[in-house]
Design goal:
By secondary structure, the protein is of the alpha/beta class.
Length: 554
């Protein structure tokens, strides 16, 4: 006999879970007690805020391809953690959020911190469920694990009533994870795919989504290179294809550069792998007509629900990307000039004018491209600063980008901590704006406690840059609610025992970053960035002047 909390934890160990991120609560004491005995097998990572914990779990799912596990308490714990659930859903990554719940005999009375989690998360997660009887834990947990991983991966929310966790059961724990084989394409669909590509004049591969195995990435790259077809990555999935390959042509994401827009708009056949055709990847659905695009679309996805959801494809294939990629054989056609122009556009995109202000991020990112290791993990949250890791870094085959498709601020630091926990020997570099960093800067305490401190680059310009840019374009010279008065970030980091410096000049960055790499306890580098440098190719003053001129003529 064992109680429900112990059965749950032993089942997670049997499934292969290694880390659980969370903030403790009295609603799941039985789980915390069981975790006391699983150190080294299933470790509990004590976080400072449920939002940070859920971001770490979402990032873990993206980095490893296995469900990120998060435990939070009822009510406020769950509402705080909801941001990670939303992020995991939009990123298509596996995650399971466990929430302590009020006892079953108190439900429906608006008990202390009571929420109906099935109603709250029903439209955000893949599945939201409550376990009312301890003997059903293995059954429901196995289903939650399978659902998080299958089809389009995503988050599952499981509510755990306090009395259920304390009740005794003789049910046996799970001892192995279910093996899920993704759907495979038929021979006829592969043949039709190749025929459509052979008949193209301007073919394009659009790839993204999670997860991609190493074998799948290698197979796709081999096909693209032997067929001489350009590849564009979906929003914040450029790390899933070797950017050094002459086939890679850029990322279709927020702030999409003109040559990528032209590639998508002018392609006549698009092989779309693992794509959900989100707003950023399609430039708000303007690059392809809804629902019948002018381009012939071959849409391949492991979830049948995604095929035809927005665009009617010429050919929809319900299959895993790996199965399709490994089944493709090289094709040939008259598109060499098309591919060469696509690659030239990507290479030219790294050229940007010197940035105004003390620290020039063009020079900073140029230095980082030269010195970062071949297995580095870059992370970022949301803000104009994200353009630097997203648009000015060339990802090799073993480098990773953890960045939220949900546009959530505060994701970068927890994601970098999760990456360091997953592999303590791997360098993780977080890009954060000054506003973005302050969303989850207390997680430096988690990093300190776990010995998992990343390198954090704070692009400190004293403003919420993205909103300021929109302000200047819409209501020029009327700044409202976007200026920030910041603390001494270096002093704050040192309070957590982390190496920290303020970088006031571009020429000082290289030496400061060398010291950051050498630091055994991570680093925070506070970079003095001018608000004038809101975007790489247009200053704040230029935005304002253009907007004022436009308003004069309307």
């Amino acid at each position: 006999m064992r109680n429900g909390g112990r059965l749950l934890v032993e089942s997670l160990v049997g499934l292969g879970a290694k880390k659980a991120f969370g903030v403790p609560g009295e609603s799941y004491l039985a789980v915390l007690d069981a975790l006391h005995d699983t150190a080294g097998a299933l470790d509990y990572v004590l976080c400072r805020h449920e939002g940070g914990a859920s971001f770490m779990a979402a990032a873990w799912g993206k980095l490893t391809g296995q469900p990120g596990i998060c435990f939070v308490t009822r009510g406020p714990g769950a509402t705080n953690a909801s941001i990670g659930v939303h992020t995991a859903m939009q990123d298509s990554v596996p995650m399971i959020l466990f929430i302590g719940q009020v006892a079953t005999d108190q439900q429906g009375r608006e008990a202390f911190q009571e929420i109906d989690y099935r109603a709250m998360f029903g439209g955000v997660a893949k599945w939201a469920v409550q376990i009312d009887h301890a003997h059903r834990i293995p059954e429901i947990l196995s289903r939650a694990w399978s659902l998080a991983l299958s089809g389009r991966p995503g988050p599952v929310v499981v509510a755990l009533p306090e009395d259920m966790l304390m009740s005794a059961t003789d049910a046996a724990p799970l001892t192995a994870a279910p093996r899920i084989v993704p759907p495979a394409p038929s021979a006829a669909s592969v043949a039709e795919t190749l025929d459509l590509l052979r008949g193209a004049s301007r073919p394009l591969i659009l790839t993204g989504g999670a997860p991609w195995s190493g074998a799948a990435r290698a197979a796709l790259q081999d096909f693209a290179e032997r067929s001489d077809i350009p590849v564009v990555a979906a929003f914040r999935y450029q790390d899933q294809f070797d950017n050094r390959s002459p086939m890679f042509a850029g990322e279709a994401g927020v702030g999409m550069i003109p040559h990528v827009k032209a590639l998508i708009r002018n392609a006549d056949v698009i092989l779309a792998l693992n794509i959900r055709f989100g707003e950023m990847t399609t430039d708000a659905w303007q690059l392809l007509d809804v629902p019948h695009p002018a381009q012939r679309i071959i849409h391949v996805h492991p979830s049948a629900d995604e095929i035809g959801k927005i665009y009617v494809p010429t050919l929809g294939i319900h299959a895993g990307a790996e199965a399709l990629a490994t089944a493709l054989t090289p094709v040939a056609g008259p598109w060499a000039e098309w591919r060469e122009k696509a690659r030239a556009g990507f290479e030219a995109s790294f050229d940007a004018p010197p940035q105004p202000g003390p620290v020039d991020m063009v020079e900073v990112t140029r230095h980082l491209r030269e010195v970062l290791p071949e297995d580095v993990v870059l992370t970022n949250g949301a803000g104009n600063f994200a353009v630097w890791p997203n648009k000015f870094f060339s990802f090799g085959p073993h480098q990773r980008l953890l960045a939220p498709q949900s546009g959530a601020m505060g994701y970068g630091l927890p994601a970098a901590i999760a990456a360091r926990i997953e592999n303590p020997d791997r360098v993780a570099v977080c890009f954060a704006g000054d506003g973005d960093f302050q969303m989850n800067c207390p997680e430096l305490g988690t990093a300190m406690q776990m010995g998992a401190c990343p390198i954090v680059l704070i692009l400190n310009n004293g403003t919420y840059g993205t909103i300021r840019a929109h302000q200047e374009r819409t209501f020029p010279a009327r700044v409202s609610g976007t200026d920030l008065q910041n603390p001494d970030f270096a002093l704050l980091a040192r309070a957590y025992g982390i190496h920290a410096e303020r970088v006031e000049r571009t020429t000082d960055f290289a030496a400061a970053f060398d010291r950051a790499l050498a630091s055994p306890n991570g680093a925070v580098l506070d970079l003095a960035i001018a608000a004038e440098a809101l975007t790489p190719r247009q200053t704040l003053s230029q935005m304002r002047a253009a907007a004022q001129e436009r308003l004069k003529t309307t």
